[in-house]
Amino acid sequence: MNIRTVVEVQEYERGLLYRNGRFVQALEPGRYVLWFWQHQRIDKVDIRETSQTVEGQEILTSDKIGVRVTLVAQFKVVDPVAARHTVENYAVQLYQDLQLTLRESITGRTIEEVLKDRDALSAQLHQAVAPRAEKYGVTLNRVGVKDIILPGVVRTVLLQEVEADLKGRASLVAARHETAAARARANTAKLLQENPNILRLQELETLAALASKAGNVLILPGLQTLLSREEDGKDQSQPPAANGQGQA
């Protein structure tokens, strides 16, 4: 028969010392020796941060659509005495608190509200459960919505809505481009009407580009008329010549 028991409390643990079934004190990390005639025991509580998954359960929204929501919670024990004495199992108690609060939150929302803002749902769950967890020595650091599973029919309808929305946006963008192009064409037509020389300049630039390519033969209708106009302009600009006869 062993007359003593050695218990080591790790750095990430806290010990709870009991004597004759009564709590005596909390123990810091270290090595402790218990003699059998003292009727003592040490329970250890892990104080590291822990993640817990609240598995998906089917819940009806306010518009009677069944969804399955999975949560992830991160928590840690900050008061080992309260965690061990207040509830039978603090991890199980936290799981149940999150589960019940999630059900209450989902039943008060429509399916659109559930899908639209997961962050608001997570914040509401944290705000509701954190004060309860503190009563049994647990700090709830974070609650997040991991998955939302919808019925097949609902997923099909939502995909159709998304597809229709994307097509509508694409049509709107195309209409904006067409409007901008029509406005640009109208401005160009107005500019050419007010300044016909610009149109003639564009024609000459196009002809020059075509003429620069080997093998192209350009036929310019009205070129003789254009050249005759230029010659007339030159003649009018020159002064009249002397006839060589003097006046009497």
Describe the structure.
It is a single chain. This protein is of the alpha+beta class and 248 residues long. The chain has 3 domains: 4-46, no CATH class; 50-150, Band 7 domain (Tetrahydropterin Synthase, Chain A); 152-194. Helix content is 49%, strand content 27%. The chain has 7 helices and 8 strands, in the order E-E-E-E-E-E-E-H-H-H-H-E-H-H-H. The protein has helices at 80-85, 90-107, 111-116, 118-135, 152-194, 196-211, 223-237, and strands spanning 4-9, 13-19, 22-27, 30-35, 40-46, 50-60, 66-77, 138-149. The longest helix is centred in the last third of the chain and has 43 residues, at 152-194.
Annotated CATH homologous superfamily of the largest domain: Band 7 domain
Structural class estimated from helices and strands: alpha+beta
Task: Give the N-to-C terminal Cα separation.
Answer: 165 Å
Which architecture name of the largest domain does CATH use?
2-Layer Sandwich
Fraction of residues in helix: 40-55%
Can you write the helix and strand succession as a string? Answer: EEEEEEEHHHHEHHH
The radius of gyration over CA amounts to 44 Å
Largest sheet composition? 3 strands, antiparallel
Write down the CATH class of the largest domain.
Answer: Alpha Beta
Mean pLDDT: 81
Short recap of the structure:
The chain is built from seven helices and eight strands, in the order E-E-E-E-E-E-E-H-H-H-H-E-H-H-H. By secondary structure, the protein is an alpha+beta fold.
Write the layout of secondary structure elements.
Blueprint: E1 4-9, E2 13-19, E3 22-27, E4 30-35, E5 40-46, E6 50-60, E7 66-77, H1 80-85, H2 90-107, H3 111-116, H4 118-135, E8 138-149, H5 152-194, H6 196-211, H7 223-237
Antiparallel strand pairs: 1-4, 2-3, 2-5, 6-7, 7-8
Helix pairs in contact: 2-4, 5-6
